[in-house]
Every structure is written in C-alpha cells, then in structure tokens.
Amino acid sequence: MSKYKIFVDGAVGTTGLRIHERLNQAEDIELLTLPEEQRKDLSARLAKVEEADLTFLCLPDEASKELVANAPQDARICDTSTAHRVNPDWVYGFAELSGQREKIKQANRVAVPGCHATGYIALVRPLVEKGVLPADYPLSCHSLTGYSGGGKSMIADYQNSERPQAFDAPRVYGLALKHKHLPEMQALTLMQNPPIFTPVVADFYSGMLVTVPLPMSALQAVKSGGEIANLFADYYQHSKLITVHSFQDLPEDGMLSANAFSGKDNLEIFVYGNESQILLAARFDNLGKGASGAVVQCMNIMLGRDEVSGLEI
User: Fold this and answer.
1) What per-residue confidence (pLDDT) applies to 11?
2) Torsions phi, psi for 279 (to 5 deg)
3) Which residues are catalytic (predicted)?
4) Of the residues 164, 192, 194, 252, which has the fewest C-beta atoms closer than 10 A?
C-alpha cells in the first residue's frame, strides 16, 4: 500500500509533537524526519518539503515565512503560525465555515486557525453571515485557556515545583489589547472591527472556553436564544466535529468547565441567557480543535482521507 509522505517542520514543539503522536500509528502515513543536526538547515528542510505530499509548519512566524518564500509553489503546506492567517493567497483552515471545506481541499497553502480565534469565529461568523449580527457591532470576547497554549516555556513554568504563587490563580494577559489572534478574529467573522478581547490562562494543562456576551437588542431577525441555538445547529449540521447544544442546556452543576474537552478534537457550542441578554460559548481543547487536531483535519481534507481520521472525538 502506498503511503502519504508527511513532513513536520518544527516537530519538537508542543503542536508538532502532538501531530507526530496522532499520525505515528496511521497505516497510510509515512512521517519524514531530519537528523537533529539538520533541524535548522534550510536546504535540508526544503528537500523534505519537496519530497513530502504535505508539510506542516510548526514554527515561529519568521521561520515559517522564510521557508514558504523558498518552497516550490506546488508544495502543499499547512502553517500553524500566525504568519499567513489573513494572507489572501492562503486558505484559512476552518473547514466548517461556508464553502471553506472545498477551498481547503483544493489548496496548496492552508493557514491553521489560532486557538482563541477558533472559538470566537465559530460563535460570531454564522451570525454575521446570516445577517443576524450587524458587522459594525462592538463585540467583546473572554477566553479561558490551559497553560499548554503558551508552549514549552509556559508549560515548564507552570509545572515547576518552585513556581510563583501567582500561578495558582487565573491570570489575564494581552493587556495592551493587541493579541496576535485579533486580525483573523476580525477578518474571518466579516466584522468591521476586532473584539475587545481578554484572554486568561489558568492552572490546568489543556482546554479552552471562549465566550461572547450579547444584548438581544443587537440581533436582527431573531427574538430568542432558542432561535440562535437553532441557527447554529443548522449552520453546523454537516460538521462531524462541532456539536450545538439546545438553548439553556446546562451542566448538572450549572457551570461550564474549560478543561472538559482536554485530549479531544471536537468543539461544542452553547447558548444561554434571558429575554434581554445572551451568552454564546464555545468549548474545546486548545491543543485539539485549537491546534494539532485542526491541522490533522485540514490534512485529511487535502489528501482526500476521511475528515476525522486520526482524531479523538
């Protein structure tokens, strides 16, 4: 049986390692590797890109840009960095958006969504696209993530037995309101402006909970939270990875835990509220649908494999 050749450039990072774990057991995948001494050798990496059926870039932005600038135009590349997410020459790797799955299937260049952006876009894009939320409405977004989202350095800091006491409590970051995910959060929701965005990191390894509050008065053509939940259910009805809960579907304790989907690759959407206010929530794993799970999903689509092959649902 012939195998797809996959090269992961940056395979020692958090996302790259998890991609390796997911693909290592696949019978139709051959993972191409480089010896340690060639890991930063551009010519050696480009040779693997040319050999591969598809390459994953798990690199800092500038390193991704350098490799892409030197790679053949027909090389199929999925980039997990922020370098190309709003580049019109790249396809955004969120398959569940209208028409996006077919674009990914045909693409040579796919930019994988950021973790925070994944939840925000999942909640806002359907409302704007369907004419329910005006594109000029001023939105805010709150996002709680596990510390693995900060990569190896943050993981080491949180798992250090001598860490500061401050790490025991949730910590708000991105205080200048210029988070790197904001450009894609604006562009892919079709909004005129980015949201006021407050990300929070807390003392759990992985998982993410993204929330967007709205007054009912901001919405058009819908009169209840139930109608909003139905809109989401219709929009994502063909998705194997996104589950939409009915309006006011509360957990037994009445709380949403951000780490409930740790280790999973799917995403769930909730709608809560009352006659005057609505809360939209997306829950998933920052390392799953928010990172390596989305990478593998895009790869599956690009190679014609089952879209959820190798994913944990």
Assistant:
1) 66
2) -120, 120
3) 115
4) 252
Mean pLDDT of 254-280: 96
User: 121 with 108, same domain?
Assistant: no
β 77-79/109-111 pair status:
parallel
Query: Which CA distances in Å does 269 have to 109, 217, 238, 266, 272?
Result: 28, 21, 15, 10, 10
| Catalytic residue of the set 78, 115, 141, 298 | 115
Q: How far apart are the first and last CA of the chain?
A: 27
Strands 208-215 and 277-284, bridge-based pairing:
antiparallel
Percent share of the chain, pLDDT over 90? 87
Cα torsion at 226, 231, 237, 240 (round to 10°)? -80
Is 310 a domain residue?
A: no
**115 is known as an active-site residue:** yes
253 exposure class (CB count in 10 Å sphere: 0-12, 13-18, 19+): exposed
Q: What is the CATH number of the domain that holds 68?
A: 3.40.50.720
Of all helices (H) and strands (E), which one includes residue 54? Answer: strand 54-57
- 165 is in which domain, residue-wise? 115-284
Q: Fill in the amino acid letter for 166.
A: A
CATH number for 185: 3.30.360.10
Residue 254 within any structural domain of the chain: yes
Q: Check whether residue 169 and residue 83 sit in a common domain.
A: no
- Give the tokens for residue 170: 């949730």
Other beta carbons less than 10 A from residue 14's beta carbon = 21
The count of domains in the chain is: 2
Is 201 inside a domain boundary?
yes
Q: Is residue 162 part of a domain?
A: yes
Single out the residue of 85, 81, 78 nearest to residue 300, CA to CA. Answer: 78
Same domain as 256, residue 182: yes
87-134 residue pLDDT tens? 999 999 999 999 999 999 999 999 999 999 999 999 999 999 999 999
Note whether 164 and 278 are same-domain residues.
yes
The two tokens of residue 53 are 């059926």
Beta pairing partners, 196: 140
Q: Return the SS3 of 108.
A: coil
